[in-house]
Amino acid sequence: MKKYINNISEKISWLMMALIIAAAGYFVTSCEQEEDYGVPVITKVRIVAKDSALTEGQLGQMIVIQGKNLSSTMHIYFNNVEAFFMPTLVTDKNIIVTIPGEFPTEINNKITVVTKGGQTTYDFPVLIPPPDADTIPLEYVPDGEILQIKGKYFVNLIKVVFPGEVEGTIVSYTDKLINVKVPEGAQPGKIKVYAVAGMDSTDSWFRDNRNVFINFDDLPICWGGDAYVRDPETLPSDFPVKPISGKFYYLKQDYGDNQWWIQETVIAYCGGLQVEGNPADYDLRFEMWVGDTKFDKNWFEVGMVDVGFIEWKPYTADFGNKVYEKTGWMTVSIPLDKWPNIAGKPFHLDRFGSWKSQVGMTFDFAFDNFRIVPKIKK
Hints:
Order of helices and strands: HEEEEEEEEEEEEEEEEEEEEEEEEEEEEE
Helix content: under 10%
Structural class: mainly beta
Distance between the termini: 97 Å
CATH class of the largest domain: Mainly Beta
Mean pLDDT: 88
Number of strands: 29
Number of domains: 3
Radius of gyration: 34 Å
Number of helices: 1
Oligomer: single chain
Shape: elongated
CATH architecture of the largest domain: Sandwich
């Protein structure tokens, strides 16, 4: 029994010795690793071509990270985005690397380098473009419906806030287009788009109510096409046009070659609204619906008081080279400086109509919310 215990004690002693030796070896190896690699340090960031220090960078830019103990670099992060790098472009004192083109989901304005000897950070902002909210293709959208915002840099969005400080529900988005559900309580004005990289407001106004003079509700037309004003309360369920803000004008009719629009269908304004200013700074704007037709020929005559008429052809280069075909509702602008004699005179719409049909086609259009508003500045 005593011999058996002595054997066990001897084995335990050998085991303890082995553990001590292994631990000592690990400690020595760890010290050697730390001594071999050292703790990384970043002292400077510069451009590749010459020794000029950089204080900030841009997405996709190639730079040089300088310091010491960098040869064992395993990972490089700009904000929270990891950068790809070539090991052959890494030395103990320099790393040549390209700032990732990917937008970060978190911004700390730091470079982080991880090596076998440890980790270090360096203050270095990367210029991340904030969202650039541009236009609203349809400015009048009812509560609960989907509104679109066009622009760029729509990446890592946080929220979309409508005037009245009510938040819409983001349904989907790409880097150039946002689909958002209009919340209850939204008011007229610019919409704010928030992203990780910043905030921007739309150039367009949501439900722009400035200088509205015809809306077919409390601001009716004074003669002409009253019979073609549609009331949402009396529309059949299969009516092709969905109202966007109360009553609207709608007419579907076939026209032959060389036929004029008759007076009974004209949208005429006899009110007193006049707007002063530089016509180059203003548009005549309204909502238009296009159904079973292709508006790539013919035109409308649009008249201004004391100024005369223009031939509105939105499919030509003069009006943005747009062709309207089965597009549904959209917001349309006619620059006031298209009227050649308008300088120095108040902006005062006479009538919208006098459809001129040189080539036969089906008239299938709706209109709403005529207004004179400041031009969208881009």
